[in-house]
Request: fold
Amino acid sequence: MNQYFHSVTLETEKCKGCTNCIKRCPVEAIRVRDGKAMIVEERCIDCGECIRECPNHAKVAVTDSLEKLSEYKYRIALPAPSFFGQFKEQVNIEDVLGAFRGIGFDEVFEVALAAEIVGYMVHEFLKDYKGKRPIFSSACPAVVRLMQIKYPDLLDQVAPFLTPMEVAARIAKEQASRRTGIPYEEIGAFFISPCPAKVTEMRNPMTTKHSAVNGVIGVNLIYKDIIRHLGDRSATGGSEKLQRATRFGMAWGYVTGESRNVAAATTLAVGGIHNVISLLEEIERGELKDVDFVELQACTGGCVGGPLNVQNLFVGRIRLRDLIKRFGTKESYFTEAELQDMYLQNRFAATEPVEPRAIMTLDEDVSRAIMKMERLDQITSELPGLDCGACGSPSCRALAEDIIRGIAFETDCVIKLREKVKILAKEILDLSRIVPPSMSGGSKEGNPGQGY
Amino acid sequence: MVDSLAYTPQITLEFEIGEKDFFVAGECASRVKKTLQQLGLKQDIIKRIAIIIYEAAMNVAIHATSGRLVVHVEPDGITIRTEDVGAGIEDINLAMKEGYSTASYEIREMGFGAGMGLSNIKQCSDDLNIESRVGVGTTLNARVFFKDERRHEDA
Reply:
Protein backbone atom coordinates (compact mmCIF):
# COMPACT_ATOMS: atom_id res chain seq x y z
CA MET A 1 0.00 0.00 0.00
CA ASN A 2 1.15 3.50 -0.76
CA GLN A 3 2.72 4.94 2.36
CA TYR A 4 1.18 8.31 1.65
CA PHE A 5 -2.32 7.31 0.74
CA HIS A 6 -4.60 10.30 0.63
CA SER A 7 -8.28 10.68 0.27
CA VAL A 8 -7.97 14.22 -1.03
CA THR A 9 -7.02 14.12 -4.70
CA LEU A 10 -7.14 16.26 -7.78
CA GLU A 11 -9.37 15.80 -10.81
CA THR A 12 -6.83 17.07 -13.29
CA GLU A 13 -9.22 17.97 -16.14
CA LYS A 14 -11.21 20.28 -13.89
CA CYS A 15 -8.21 22.13 -12.46
CA LYS A 16 -7.65 25.52 -14.08
CA GLY A 17 -4.35 26.11 -12.34
CA CYS A 18 -5.54 29.06 -10.26
CA THR A 19 -3.93 29.73 -6.90
CA ASN A 20 -6.95 29.59 -4.59
CA CYS A 21 -6.10 26.25 -3.03
CA ILE A 22 -2.39 26.86 -2.52
CA LYS A 23 -3.13 30.01 -0.56
CA ARG A 24 -5.65 28.33 1.69
CA CYS A 25 -3.83 25.06 2.45
CA PRO A 26 -2.83 25.20 6.15
CA VAL A 27 0.32 23.11 5.66
CA GLU A 28 1.42 24.57 2.31
CA ALA A 29 1.04 21.17 0.67
CA ILE A 30 -0.12 22.34 -2.76
CA ARG A 31 1.88 23.76 -5.66
CA VAL A 32 0.75 24.72 -9.14
CA ARG A 33 2.95 23.18 -11.83
CA ASP A 34 2.32 23.15 -15.58
CA GLY A 35 -1.02 24.80 -15.07
CA LYS A 36 -2.32 22.19 -12.62
CA ALA A 37 -2.42 21.95 -8.86
CA MET A 38 -0.25 19.25 -7.38
CA ILE A 39 -0.59 17.89 -3.85
CA VAL A 40 2.66 17.24 -2.01
CA GLU A 41 1.60 13.87 -0.64
CA GLU A 42 3.84 13.72 2.39
CA ARG A 43 2.60 17.04 3.67
CA CYS A 44 -1.15 16.72 3.09
CA ILE A 45 -3.18 16.16 6.26
CA ASP A 46 -6.47 15.54 4.43
CA CYS A 47 -8.27 18.39 6.15
CA GLY A 48 -10.31 19.04 3.03
CA GLU A 49 -9.79 22.80 3.10
CA CYS A 50 -8.91 22.74 -0.62
CA ILE A 51 -12.09 20.82 -1.45
CA ARG A 52 -14.09 23.65 0.06
CA GLU A 53 -11.96 26.31 -1.54
CA CYS A 54 -11.68 25.13 -5.17
CA PRO A 55 -14.02 27.17 -7.39
CA ASN A 56 -13.84 24.51 -10.12
CA HIS A 57 -14.57 21.53 -7.88
CA ALA A 58 -11.35 19.92 -8.98
CA LYS A 59 -10.45 18.73 -5.49
CA VAL A 60 -12.31 15.64 -4.43
CA ALA A 61 -12.23 13.10 -1.64
CA VAL A 62 -11.92 9.49 -2.66
CA THR A 63 -14.13 7.28 -0.49
CA ASP A 64 -15.38 3.72 -0.88
CA SER A 65 -18.51 2.96 -2.87
CA LEU A 66 -21.52 0.93 -1.81
CA GLU A 67 -20.30 -1.89 -4.04
CA LYS A 68 -17.75 -2.73 -1.39
CA LEU A 69 -20.59 -4.01 0.77
CA SER A 70 -20.75 -7.16 -1.34
CA GLU A 71 -17.33 -8.23 -0.07
CA TYR A 72 -18.81 -8.99 3.35
CA LYS A 73 -21.38 -11.45 4.58
CA TYR A 74 -22.76 -9.10 7.23
CA ARG A 75 -22.63 -5.34 6.81
CA ILE A 76 -22.82 -2.71 9.53
CA ALA A 77 -23.26 1.02 8.88
CA LEU A 78 -21.54 3.40 11.29
CA PRO A 79 -23.08 6.84 10.74
CA ALA A 80 -21.12 9.78 12.14
CA PRO A 81 -22.97 11.89 14.74
CA SER A 82 -23.12 14.82 12.32
CA PHE A 83 -24.97 12.71 9.74
CA PHE A 84 -28.29 13.28 11.48
CA GLY A 85 -28.07 17.00 10.89
CA GLN A 86 -28.33 16.48 7.13
CA PHE A 87 -32.12 15.99 7.01
CA LYS A 88 -35.27 18.07 7.07
CA GLU A 89 -36.93 19.09 10.35
CA GLN A 90 -39.65 16.45 10.37
CA VAL A 91 -37.29 13.53 10.09
CA ASN A 92 -36.76 11.45 13.19
CA ILE A 93 -33.75 9.40 14.14
CA GLU A 94 -35.43 6.02 13.82
CA ASP A 95 -36.34 6.84 10.21
CA VAL A 96 -32.74 7.63 9.33
CA LEU A 97 -31.32 4.61 11.13
CA GLY A 98 -33.92 2.35 9.54
CA ALA A 99 -33.04 3.57 6.06
CA PHE A 100 -29.62 1.93 6.27
CA ARG A 101 -31.31 -1.45 6.37
CA GLY A 102 -33.18 -0.49 3.25
CA ILE A 103 -30.03 0.12 1.23
CA GLY A 104 -28.24 -3.10 1.98
CA PHE A 105 -26.86 -2.92 5.48
CA ASP A 106 -27.78 -5.63 7.97
CA GLU A 107 -27.29 -3.41 10.95
CA VAL A 108 -26.62 0.16 11.97
CA PHE A 109 -24.46 1.23 14.89
CA GLU A 110 -24.28 4.91 15.82
CA VAL A 111 -20.75 6.26 16.16
CA ALA A 112 -22.31 8.64 18.71
CA LEU A 113 -22.66 5.66 21.04
CA ALA A 114 -18.94 4.93 20.74
CA ALA A 115 -18.19 8.62 21.21
CA GLU A 116 -19.86 8.44 24.62
CA ILE A 117 -17.52 5.63 25.56
CA VAL A 118 -14.49 7.66 24.47
CA GLY A 119 -15.84 10.65 26.36
CA TYR A 120 -16.12 8.52 29.48
CA MET A 121 -12.56 7.16 29.05
CA VAL A 122 -11.04 10.62 28.67
CA HIS A 123 -13.01 11.85 31.67
CA GLU A 124 -11.67 9.00 33.81
CA PHE A 125 -8.16 9.42 32.44
CA LEU A 126 -8.10 13.12 33.34
CA LYS A 127 -9.10 12.36 36.94
CA ASP A 128 -5.69 10.86 37.72
CA TYR A 129 -3.61 12.63 35.11
CA LYS A 130 -0.72 14.59 36.58
CA GLY A 131 1.33 15.28 33.44
CA LYS A 132 1.53 18.24 31.09
CA ARG A 133 -1.72 19.94 30.28
CA PRO A 134 -3.82 20.45 28.27
CA ILE A 135 -4.73 17.02 26.95
CA PHE A 136 -5.86 17.13 23.32
CA SER A 137 -8.69 15.23 21.75
CA SER A 138 -7.56 12.42 19.44
CA ALA A 139 -10.84 12.32 17.53
CA CYS A 140 -10.05 14.58 14.56
CA PRO A 141 -7.41 12.84 12.41
CA ALA A 142 -6.64 15.97 10.38
CA VAL A 143 -5.70 17.81 13.57
CA VAL A 144 -3.53 14.97 14.86
CA ARG A 145 -1.78 14.80 11.47
CA LEU A 146 -1.23 18.53 11.64
CA MET A 147 0.38 18.08 15.05
CA GLN A 148 2.62 15.32 13.69
CA ILE A 149 4.22 17.67 11.21
CA LYS A 150 4.00 21.07 12.89
CA TYR A 151 3.70 20.54 16.66
CA PRO A 152 5.61 17.32 17.42
CA ASP A 153 6.27 18.66 20.90
CA LEU A 154 2.63 18.43 21.84
CA LEU A 155 2.03 14.87 20.61
CA ASP A 156 2.49 13.27 24.02
CA GLN A 157 -0.47 15.34 25.19
CA VAL A 158 -2.87 13.68 22.72
CA ALA A 159 -5.47 11.65 24.65
CA PRO A 160 -4.26 8.03 24.41
CA PHE A 161 -7.53 6.58 23.14
CA LEU A 162 -8.93 5.27 19.89
CA THR A 163 -11.28 7.42 17.85
CA PRO A 164 -15.05 6.95 18.18
CA MET A 165 -15.08 5.55 14.61
CA GLU A 166 -12.60 2.86 15.60
CA VAL A 167 -14.36 2.02 18.86
CA ALA A 168 -17.70 1.80 17.05
CA ALA A 169 -16.32 -0.63 14.48
CA ARG A 170 -14.84 -2.89 17.15
CA ILE A 171 -17.89 -3.04 19.39
CA ALA A 172 -20.32 -3.39 16.48
CA LYS A 173 -18.40 -6.23 14.86
CA GLU A 174 -17.83 -8.11 18.12
CA GLN A 175 -21.47 -7.83 19.12
CA ALA A 176 -22.68 -8.87 15.68
CA SER A 177 -20.33 -11.81 15.55
CA ARG A 178 -21.48 -13.04 18.94
CA ARG A 179 -25.13 -12.62 18.06
CA THR A 180 -25.12 -14.09 14.56
CA GLY A 181 -22.27 -16.59 14.77
CA ILE A 182 -20.74 -15.08 11.63
CA PRO A 183 -16.92 -14.91 11.91
CA TYR A 184 -15.53 -11.49 12.77
CA GLU A 185 -13.56 -11.31 9.50
CA GLU A 186 -16.69 -11.72 7.41
CA ILE A 187 -18.37 -8.76 9.03
CA GLY A 188 -17.80 -5.41 7.35
CA ALA A 189 -18.05 -2.11 9.23
CA PHE A 190 -18.59 1.00 7.08
CA PHE A 191 -18.15 4.48 8.44
CA ILE A 192 -20.57 7.00 6.91
CA SER A 193 -18.22 9.94 6.75
CA PRO A 194 -18.39 13.72 6.50
CA CYS A 195 -14.60 13.70 6.37
CA PRO A 196 -11.80 12.77 3.96
CA ALA A 197 -9.26 12.41 6.77
CA LYS A 198 -11.23 9.46 8.12
CA VAL A 199 -10.56 7.55 4.90
CA THR A 200 -6.85 8.10 5.36
CA GLU A 201 -7.22 7.22 9.04
CA MET A 202 -8.76 3.86 8.15
CA ARG A 203 -5.91 3.00 5.75
CA ASN A 204 -3.06 4.33 7.89
CA PRO A 205 -4.38 4.57 11.43
CA MET A 206 -2.30 6.57 13.90
CA THR A 207 -3.24 5.13 17.29
CA THR A 208 -3.62 1.46 16.38
CA LYS A 209 -1.85 -0.94 13.98
CA HIS A 210 -4.90 -2.06 12.05
CA SER A 211 -8.22 -0.37 11.75
CA ALA A 212 -11.35 -2.44 12.38
CA VAL A 213 -13.19 -0.25 9.89
CA ASN A 214 -13.55 -1.93 6.50
CA GLY A 215 -14.78 0.94 4.42
CA VAL A 216 -15.49 4.66 4.56
CA ILE A 217 -18.38 5.93 2.49
CA GLY A 218 -18.81 9.65 1.95
CA VAL A 219 -22.08 11.20 3.10
CA ASN A 220 -22.32 12.80 -0.36
CA LEU A 221 -22.38 9.34 -1.97
CA ILE A 222 -24.97 7.71 0.25
CA TYR A 223 -27.28 10.63 0.98
CA LYS A 224 -29.69 10.17 -1.93
CA ASP A 225 -30.13 6.47 -1.22
CA ILE A 226 -30.86 7.19 2.41
CA ILE A 227 -33.43 9.85 1.51
CA ARG A 228 -35.19 7.36 -0.74
CA HIS A 229 -35.47 4.84 2.07
CA LEU A 230 -36.30 7.19 4.94
CA GLY A 231 -38.85 5.61 7.20
CA ASP A 232 -38.57 2.33 5.32
CA ARG A 233 -39.19 -0.18 8.09
CA SER A 234 -39.78 -3.18 5.83
CA ALA A 235 -36.55 -4.78 6.86
CA THR A 236 -37.24 -4.57 10.57
CA GLY A 237 -40.99 -4.70 10.78
CA GLY A 238 -40.79 -1.34 12.46
CA SER A 239 -40.90 -2.67 16.01
CA GLU A 240 -37.26 -2.61 17.04
CA LYS A 241 -35.84 0.59 18.48
CA LEU A 242 -32.56 1.38 16.77
CA GLN A 243 -31.40 4.52 18.55
CA ARG A 244 -29.06 3.80 21.44
CA ALA A 245 -26.88 6.91 21.64
CA THR A 246 -27.75 9.61 24.12
CA ARG A 247 -27.68 13.35 23.62
CA PHE A 248 -24.10 13.42 24.92
CA GLY A 249 -22.81 11.25 22.08
CA MET A 250 -24.98 12.89 19.45
CA ALA A 251 -23.56 16.30 20.31
CA TRP A 252 -20.10 15.17 19.15
CA GLY A 253 -21.37 16.18 15.71
CA TYR A 254 -20.64 19.82 16.41
CA VAL A 255 -17.85 21.64 18.15
CA THR A 256 -18.18 21.77 22.00
CA GLY A 257 -20.12 18.48 22.05
CA GLU A 258 -17.06 16.43 22.79
CA SER A 259 -15.62 18.66 25.50
CA ARG A 260 -18.98 18.79 27.26
CA ASN A 261 -19.12 15.01 27.17
CA VAL A 262 -15.58 14.74 28.53
CA ALA A 263 -16.72 17.07 31.30
CA ALA A 264 -13.34 18.04 32.69
CA ALA A 265 -13.04 21.02 35.01
CA THR A 266 -11.67 23.35 32.34
CA THR A 267 -12.19 22.68 28.67
CA LEU A 268 -11.77 24.56 25.45
CA ALA A 269 -13.27 23.78 22.04
CA VAL A 270 -12.12 25.17 18.70
CA GLY A 271 -13.27 24.50 15.16
CA GLY A 272 -11.64 25.48 11.85
CA ILE A 273 -8.10 24.46 10.94
CA HIS A 274 -6.73 28.00 10.89
CA ASN A 275 -8.16 28.67 14.36
CA VAL A 276 -6.72 25.37 15.49
CA ILE A 277 -3.29 26.47 14.27
CA SER A 278 -3.40 29.76 16.13
CA LEU A 279 -4.44 28.00 19.32
CA LEU A 280 -1.70 25.36 18.96
CA GLU A 281 0.85 28.13 18.43
CA GLU A 282 -0.29 29.64 21.69
CA ILE A 283 -0.10 26.34 23.54
CA GLU A 284 3.33 25.65 22.07
CA ARG A 285 4.47 28.98 23.48
CA GLY A 286 3.53 27.68 26.92
CA GLU A 287 0.09 29.22 27.34
CA LEU A 288 -3.07 27.50 28.56
CA LYS A 289 -1.37 25.12 30.95
CA ASP A 290 -4.36 25.56 33.23
CA VAL A 291 -6.78 24.03 30.74
CA ASP A 292 -7.51 20.32 31.23
CA PHE A 293 -8.88 19.34 27.87
CA VAL A 294 -8.83 20.90 24.42
CA GLU A 295 -11.16 19.77 21.68
CA LEU A 296 -9.76 20.64 18.28
CA GLN A 297 -11.72 20.18 15.06
CA ALA A 298 -10.28 20.83 11.62
CA CYS A 299 -13.65 21.87 10.24
CA THR A 300 -15.40 25.09 11.19
CA GLY A 301 -18.26 24.13 13.46
CA GLY A 302 -16.88 20.63 13.94
CA CYS A 303 -17.93 17.53 11.97
CA VAL A 304 -21.20 19.13 10.78
CA GLY A 305 -18.88 21.36 8.75
CA GLY A 306 -17.21 18.34 7.12
CA PRO A 307 -16.49 18.77 3.40
CA LEU A 308 -18.43 15.61 2.44
CA ASN A 309 -21.64 16.68 4.16
CA VAL A 310 -24.44 17.83 1.90
CA GLN A 311 -26.00 20.39 4.19
CA ASN A 312 -24.69 23.87 4.92
CA LEU A 313 -22.78 23.83 8.18
CA PHE A 314 -25.08 26.18 10.07
CA VAL A 315 -28.21 24.47 8.84
CA GLY A 316 -26.69 21.10 9.73
CA ARG A 317 -25.87 22.27 13.22
CA ILE A 318 -29.28 23.67 14.00
CA ARG A 319 -30.98 20.51 12.64
CA LEU A 320 -28.75 18.31 14.75
CA ARG A 321 -29.42 20.40 17.83
CA ASP A 322 -33.10 20.22 17.13
CA LEU A 323 -32.97 16.43 16.81
CA ILE A 324 -31.08 16.19 20.08
CA LYS A 325 -33.75 18.29 21.75
CA ARG A 326 -36.50 16.07 20.41
CA PHE A 327 -34.96 12.63 20.72
CA GLY A 328 -31.85 12.97 22.85
CA THR A 329 -32.15 10.78 25.89
CA LYS A 330 -29.84 10.92 28.86
CA GLU A 331 -29.93 7.27 29.76
CA SER A 332 -26.76 5.54 28.69
CA TYR A 333 -26.96 2.24 26.82
CA PHE A 334 -23.92 0.99 28.72
CA THR A 335 -24.05 0.86 32.49
CA GLU A 336 -21.53 2.73 34.61
CA ALA A 337 -20.04 -0.63 35.65
CA GLU A 338 -19.60 -1.69 32.03
CA LEU A 339 -17.94 1.60 31.13
CA GLN A 340 -15.66 1.43 34.15
CA ASP A 341 -14.73 -2.09 33.15
CA MET A 342 -13.81 -0.99 29.61
CA TYR A 343 -11.68 1.79 31.05
CA LEU A 344 -9.84 -0.36 33.58
CA GLN A 345 -9.14 -3.07 31.01
CA ASN A 346 -7.75 -0.52 28.55
CA ARG A 347 -10.20 -1.84 26.00
CA PHE A 348 -10.02 1.22 23.80
CA ALA A 349 -6.68 2.69 24.74
CA ALA A 350 -4.35 3.65 21.91
CA THR A 351 -1.85 0.89 21.21
CA GLU A 352 0.52 2.97 19.09
CA PRO A 353 2.11 6.27 20.08
CA VAL A 354 1.50 9.10 17.63
CA GLU A 355 4.91 9.66 16.05
CA PRO A 356 6.19 13.00 14.77
CA ARG A 357 6.78 13.27 11.03
CA ALA A 358 9.74 15.55 10.39
CA ILE A 359 8.87 16.54 6.85
CA MET A 360 9.78 20.19 7.28
CA THR A 361 13.48 19.31 7.68
CA LEU A 362 15.75 20.93 5.10
CA ASP A 363 18.49 18.31 5.17
CA GLU A 364 19.42 15.15 7.07
CA ASP A 365 22.80 16.65 7.88
CA VAL A 366 22.73 19.56 10.37
CA SER A 367 25.64 21.35 8.70
CA ARG A 368 24.04 21.24 5.31
CA ALA A 369 20.66 22.14 6.79
CA ILE A 370 22.15 25.28 8.34
CA MET A 371 23.76 26.15 5.04
CA LYS A 372 20.45 25.71 3.27
CA MET A 373 18.72 27.87 5.84
CA GLU A 374 21.30 30.61 5.31
CA ARG A 375 20.50 30.51 1.61
CA LEU A 376 16.82 30.29 2.34
CA ASP A 377 16.93 33.49 4.39
CA GLN A 378 19.01 35.16 1.69
CA ILE A 379 16.63 34.21 -1.12
CA THR A 380 13.58 35.16 0.94
CA SER A 381 15.00 38.62 1.58
CA GLU A 382 15.50 39.11 -2.15
CA LEU A 383 11.98 38.06 -3.09
CA PRO A 384 9.33 40.81 -3.25
CA GLY A 385 7.31 39.56 -0.25
CA LEU A 386 4.00 39.93 -2.06
CA ASP A 387 3.00 36.32 -1.42
CA CYS A 388 1.02 36.52 -4.63
CA GLY A 389 1.23 32.84 -5.48
CA ALA A 390 1.78 33.41 -9.20
CA CYS A 391 4.93 31.29 -9.06
CA GLY A 392 2.84 28.30 -7.99
CA SER A 393 4.13 28.32 -4.42
CA PRO A 394 1.86 29.67 -1.66
CA SER A 395 4.21 32.40 -0.37
CA CYS A 396 7.58 33.96 -1.07
CA ARG A 397 9.08 32.01 1.82
CA ALA A 398 7.62 28.80 0.39
CA LEU A 399 9.09 29.61 -3.03
CA ALA A 400 12.47 30.14 -1.40
CA GLU A 401 12.11 26.74 0.23
CA ASP A 402 11.16 25.18 -3.08
CA ILE A 403 14.24 26.76 -4.69
CA ILE A 404 16.42 25.30 -1.93
CA ARG A 405 14.81 21.91 -2.44
CA GLY A 406 15.55 22.17 -6.15
CA ILE A 407 11.98 22.13 -7.39
CA ALA A 408 11.69 25.81 -8.38
CA PHE A 409 13.78 28.67 -9.77
CA GLU A 410 14.15 32.28 -8.77
CA THR A 411 12.79 33.34 -12.16
CA ASP A 412 9.52 31.54 -11.33
CA CYS A 413 8.78 34.76 -9.47
CA VAL A 414 7.08 37.11 -11.93
CA ILE A 415 8.44 40.19 -10.17
CA LYS A 416 11.97 38.81 -10.25
CA LEU A 417 11.52 37.86 -13.89
CA ARG A 418 10.28 41.37 -14.66
CA GLU A 419 13.37 42.84 -13.00
CA LYS A 420 15.59 40.59 -15.06
CA VAL A 421 13.73 41.53 -18.24
CA LYS A 422 14.10 45.21 -17.35
CA ILE A 423 17.85 44.85 -16.95
CA LEU A 424 18.02 42.91 -20.16
CA ALA A 425 15.92 45.52 -21.98
CA LYS A 426 18.21 48.27 -20.76
CA GLU A 427 21.23 46.34 -22.00
CA ILE A 428 19.61 45.84 -25.36
CA LEU A 429 18.75 49.52 -25.55
CA ASP A 430 22.30 50.47 -24.63
CA LEU A 431 23.67 48.11 -27.21
CA SER A 432 21.31 49.41 -29.87
CA ARG A 433 22.63 52.93 -29.35
CA ILE A 434 26.16 51.93 -30.06
CA VAL A 435 26.96 52.89 -33.62
CA PRO A 436 30.16 51.71 -35.29
CA PRO A 437 32.73 54.55 -35.56
CA SER A 438 32.58 54.29 -39.31
CA MET A 439 28.91 55.36 -39.22
CA SER A 440 28.83 57.69 -36.25
CA GLY A 441 29.71 60.95 -37.99
CA GLY A 442 26.32 62.73 -38.12
CA SER A 443 24.93 61.39 -34.85
CA LYS A 444 23.96 63.95 -32.22
CA GLU A 445 23.24 61.41 -29.54
CA GLY A 446 25.74 60.38 -26.95
CA ASN A 447 27.89 57.59 -28.13
CA PRO A 448 30.60 55.76 -26.22
CA GLY A 449 32.81 56.04 -29.24
CA GLN A 450 32.39 59.81 -29.49
CA GLY A 451 35.19 61.36 -27.51
CA TYR A 452 36.19 64.09 -29.90
CA MET B 1 32.26 17.13 1.11
CA VAL B 2 30.46 20.17 2.41
CA ASP B 3 31.96 19.90 5.88
CA SER B 4 35.42 20.65 4.57
CA LEU B 5 34.42 24.07 3.25
CA ALA B 6 36.44 26.99 4.58
CA TYR B 7 33.51 28.78 6.19
CA THR B 8 31.21 27.60 8.95
CA PRO B 9 27.55 27.85 8.10
CA GLN B 10 25.65 29.70 10.80
CA ILE B 11 22.33 31.29 11.58
CA THR B 12 21.65 34.07 14.01
CA LEU B 13 18.25 34.93 15.42
CA GLU B 14 17.75 38.07 17.47
CA PHE B 15 14.91 39.24 19.66
CA GLU B 16 14.33 42.40 21.64
CA ILE B 17 12.87 41.89 25.12
CA GLY B 18 11.07 44.72 26.83
CA GLU B 19 10.48 45.25 30.54
CA LYS B 20 7.65 43.05 31.86
CA ASP B 21 7.08 41.66 28.39
CA PHE B 22 6.07 38.18 29.54
CA PHE B 23 4.72 37.06 26.19
CA VAL B 24 7.88 37.51 24.20
CA ALA B 25 9.64 34.61 25.97
CA GLY B 26 7.20 32.05 24.64
CA GLU B 27 7.37 33.60 21.22
CA CYS B 28 11.18 33.44 21.14
CA ALA B 29 11.13 29.81 22.21
CA SER B 30 8.54 28.89 19.63
CA ARG B 31 10.33 30.67 16.77
CA VAL B 32 13.65 29.05 17.59
CA LYS B 33 11.93 25.68 17.95
CA LYS B 34 10.53 25.96 14.42
CA THR B 35 13.94 26.83 13.03
CA LEU B 36 15.60 23.91 14.82
CA GLN B 37 12.92 21.54 13.58
CA GLN B 38 13.70 22.62 10.03
CA LEU B 39 17.34 21.92 10.73
CA GLY B 40 16.39 18.36 11.63
CA LEU B 41 17.58 18.39 15.24
CA LYS B 42 16.35 15.73 17.61
CA GLN B 43 13.25 16.49 19.62
CA ASP B 44 14.88 16.15 23.05
CA ILE B 45 17.65 18.62 22.19
CA ILE B 46 15.06 21.05 20.84
CA LYS B 47 13.10 20.75 24.07
CA ARG B 48 16.16 21.53 26.19
CA ILE B 49 17.01 24.55 24.06
CA ALA B 50 13.44 25.81 24.19
CA ILE B 51 13.48 25.67 28.01
CA ILE B 52 16.74 27.64 28.17
CA ILE B 53 15.42 30.27 25.81
CA TYR B 54 12.11 30.58 27.58
CA GLU B 55 13.65 30.88 31.04
CA ALA B 56 16.47 33.20 29.97
CA ALA B 57 14.12 35.54 28.12
CA MET B 58 11.72 35.44 31.05
CA ASN B 59 14.52 36.48 33.42
CA VAL B 60 15.22 39.49 31.26
CA ALA B 61 11.53 40.40 31.11
CA ILE B 62 11.12 40.07 34.89
CA HIS B 63 14.32 41.65 36.19
CA ALA B 64 15.67 44.01 33.53
CA THR B 65 14.54 47.29 32.04
CA SER B 66 15.56 46.23 28.53
CA GLY B 67 17.50 43.50 26.87
CA ARG B 68 17.91 41.19 23.97
CA LEU B 69 18.28 37.54 23.14
CA VAL B 70 20.70 36.33 20.50
CA VAL B 71 20.59 32.75 19.35
CA HIS B 72 23.47 31.53 17.28
CA VAL B 73 23.32 28.16 15.53
CA GLU B 74 26.38 26.41 14.15
CA PRO B 75 26.82 22.81 13.00
CA ASP B 76 28.21 21.60 16.32
CA GLY B 77 25.94 23.46 18.69
CA ILE B 78 23.89 26.44 19.68
CA THR B 79 24.74 29.47 21.77
CA ILE B 80 21.99 31.30 23.61
CA ARG B 81 22.95 34.72 24.87
CA THR B 82 20.94 37.29 26.76
CA GLU B 83 22.23 40.76 27.48
CA ASP B 84 20.25 43.10 29.64
CA VAL B 85 20.32 46.45 31.34
CA GLY B 86 18.82 46.20 34.79
CA ALA B 87 19.16 45.22 38.40
CA GLY B 88 21.91 42.65 37.96
CA ILE B 89 22.45 39.66 40.26
CA GLU B 90 24.04 40.16 43.68
CA ASP B 91 25.00 36.58 44.40
CA ILE B 92 25.01 34.33 41.35
CA ASN B 93 25.48 31.11 43.36
CA LEU B 94 22.48 31.92 45.47
CA ALA B 95 20.46 32.82 42.39
CA MET B 96 21.23 29.40 40.90
CA LYS B 97 19.52 27.67 43.84
CA GLU B 98 16.11 26.16 43.19
CA GLY B 99 13.38 28.29 44.65
CA TYR B 100 15.52 31.35 45.33
CA SER B 101 13.83 34.38 43.81
CA THR B 102 13.95 38.13 44.04
CA ALA B 103 10.87 38.62 41.91
CA SER B 104 8.24 40.94 43.31
CA TYR B 105 5.01 39.76 44.87
CA GLU B 106 3.14 41.15 41.90
CA ILE B 107 5.12 39.01 39.46
CA ARG B 108 4.81 35.89 41.60
CA GLU B 109 1.10 36.41 41.72
CA MET B 110 1.04 36.21 37.94
CA GLY B 111 2.60 32.76 38.22
CA PHE B 112 6.16 33.74 37.32
CA GLY B 113 9.34 34.27 39.31
CA ALA B 114 9.25 30.98 41.21
CA GLY B 115 13.01 30.85 41.40
CA MET B 116 13.42 27.88 39.08
CA GLY B 117 14.68 29.74 36.00
CA LEU B 118 18.44 29.63 36.41
CA SER B 119 18.53 26.12 37.82
CA ASN B 120 16.40 24.95 34.89
CA ILE B 121 18.78 26.66 32.49
CA LYS B 122 21.77 25.05 34.16
CA GLN B 123 20.17 21.64 33.95
CA CYS B 124 19.45 21.99 30.26
CA SER B 125 22.72 23.49 29.04
CA ASP B 126 26.09 21.85 28.45
CA ASP B 127 27.92 25.00 29.34
CA LEU B 128 26.70 28.06 31.22
CA ASN B 129 28.36 31.34 32.01
CA ILE B 130 26.77 34.30 33.77
CA GLU B 131 28.34 37.69 34.28
CA SER B 132 26.55 40.36 36.20
CA ARG B 133 27.11 43.75 37.74
CA VAL B 134 24.66 44.99 40.31
CA GLY B 135 22.73 47.98 39.06
CA VAL B 136 24.17 47.61 35.57
CA GLY B 137 22.97 44.39 34.05
CA THR B 138 23.53 40.74 33.30
CA THR B 139 24.94 38.71 30.42
CA LEU B 140 24.11 35.04 30.20
CA ASN B 141 25.76 32.60 27.81
CA ALA B 142 24.44 29.08 27.53
CA ARG B 143 25.63 26.43 25.11
CA VAL B 144 24.09 23.16 23.96
CA PHE B 145 26.06 20.79 21.76
CA PHE B 146 24.45 18.69 19.04
CA LYS B 147 26.17 15.44 19.81
CA ASP B 148 25.23 13.45 16.75
CA GLU B 149 26.97 10.44 15.18
CA ARG B 150 28.47 12.46 12.38
CA ARG B 151 30.71 14.40 14.73
CA HIS B 152 32.06 11.21 16.29
CA GLU B 153 32.89 9.87 12.85
CA ASP B 154 34.89 12.97 12.01
CA ALA B 155 36.82 12.83 15.26
